[in-house]
Amino acid sequence: MITLSTSRPETKPERRLQFDATFVEQLFVLLTLVGIVVGVLLERVEAAPGLLLTVRMATYFVGGFFAVIAIIKALRERTIEVDLLMVLAALGAAYVDAWTEGAILLFLFSLSNVLQNYAMNRTRSAISSLLELRPDTVTIRRDGELEEVPLEAIVPGDLVVLRPGDRVPLDGVIIQGTGNFDESAITGESMPVQKGVGATILAGTLNQSGALDMQVAKTAEESTLARIIGMVSDAQARKAQTQSFLDRAEQWYAMGVIATVALFILLVPPLFGVNFSDNFYRGMVLLTVASPCALVISVPAALLSAIANAARKGVLFKGGAHLEELSRVKVIAFDKTGTLTYGRPEVTDILPQPGVTAHALLTAVARAEAQSEHPIARAILAYAEAQGLETDEPEAFEAVTGMGVRATWEGQETLVGAPKLFAHAGLPVPQELLDEADRLALEGRGTVLLAARGGRWLGLITVMDRERPDAAAQLAELRAAGIERIVMLTGDNERVAEALGRRLGIDEVHASLMPEDKLRIVEDLGRRYGPTAMVGDGVNDAPALAAAASGIAMGAAGTDAALETADIVLMRDDLSAIAYAVKLSKRTQRIVWQNISFALTVVVVLVIATLTIGIPLPLGVVGHEGSTIIVVLNGLRLLAHR
């Protein structure tokens, strides 16, 4: 039985040692086969007994070498490896002078382990490929001179020079130049992203074009890439409930098999008058076919393949347990801002009053908001700039908390905000404007701002956080994947939330929520409907993410809080990643149970055949090892999941 590595990614010297060990194991398998052939030939030519015994013992040595090492290591830790069952069966075969059958058992068992190791190493390619994203040396600019230094010598504040084709060595900020960056290795996003001065760039991304200078923000150990590598490594070490149960059961099962076979060998001959030698041979076959190798490897083969596949696509599961848990989710609760919407307000409607142009309305509102730091003001100014308007600052400005702004220039006061701002200023709002504002609010057009200047009504402007264009389609994908109920949680006002919920076909909408309200609702959803997932940004939604059966942080590339808070981290800001993760988790569970069912069936069939009609040891070995390889290959199918 192979032992799966759960250590951190190895360094280059460690990889060399692993390669050498793998080579020796492959060589020993080949030598075992050669020993079997030579032994058969010597037996046929009736060679000297001493020479034949020497060849047979040498064959057993190379065939069982790595299995014995695994057994000794396990016994030191007070556990039993299923390798012990194979070695005992081979020794038992030698005891009844069935050396060739025992050697074939060791050969096929060792060959199976080599093939499993080769197959399972493919699931670790996510870490190997990430390690290759880190350059060994970096070009930095010091005192106006370019200098090549080792990656480990870089400290925050250093200026790194990036040329076209360079990998970004560490997380940092562009201080000069622009470039197109391939972020697919980190976020899974296939399209390059253009970035300029002030933009954050992540370690492991590729500068496709443009020469630029970057100021390092984090050390190599603190970079997003390093943390992803650590998370994938930890995820491979954390076992799902099914795997943990099988690991615990393996110890009792192995001891039970040894005890049962011992009783079978000792009691059957005197009770049923069976020849001891024949019965002993059958006991060795029973010891072989009852071994749970395929059953034990059936779960990690699937889970590790799924985790590796997801990591390549920018979806990080923090362990097989979270992959398993997501497959059971019935309800998904979404935080609205930044998940179903882009998380940034935009101007959506400009509705001037009769006699007022849209240009005049936008110009007045933009100037009134010029000194405001409110996100709505920033959205209006950005829209005005995109329209080519140059905005002057007002001569006087006042932000009225919760109402809007008052600004004065050229001797006239301009008011922009909610109806209560105008009531507070003693300027009644015409009923037709109030009706229009109510209509826009009911339609979910976002925040409605009224504008007046010098006592004259200019019109209305709406600002809203736009939903993602693919949001409705992706929610439909989730329903198709088996999610029974979709819920939206938001701190936004009820009208805006209800309108968005109607457009996206959401089952439940909860608005005007504080973080503690989201926590309460997520817990209630779990009680009412079953396992619930929460999708948020990993910061404001931390209590709800922690309470959910599956906490999912979306668009978390470079966000420390999101990397720490959630069970599942989506590195790219894309709703399709959620549907992908759900489908992958469900397919993984299907394959896990396919493997478990198949492995158990093979064991039962082979045990019954051994106890009834009797089967030769080589055939039992082929059935046993063949089933092990089949479940591994079945699990590896998840590497190709799309």
UniProtKB/TrEMBL annotation:
Residues 132-232 form the P-type ATPase A domain. GO terms for cellular component: plasma membrane. Pfam families: E1-E2_ATPase (PF00122), Hydrolase (PF00702). It is a multi-pass membrane protein. InterPro entries: ATPase_P-typ_cyto_dom_N, ATPase_P-typ_P_site, ATPase_P-typ_TM_dom_sf, ATPase_P-typ_transduc_dom_A_sf, ATPase_P-type_domA, Cation_Transport_ATPase, HAD-like_sf, HAD_sf. Belongs to the cation transport ATPase (P-type) (TC 3.A.3) family. Type IB subfamily. This is Cadmium-translocating P-type ATPase.
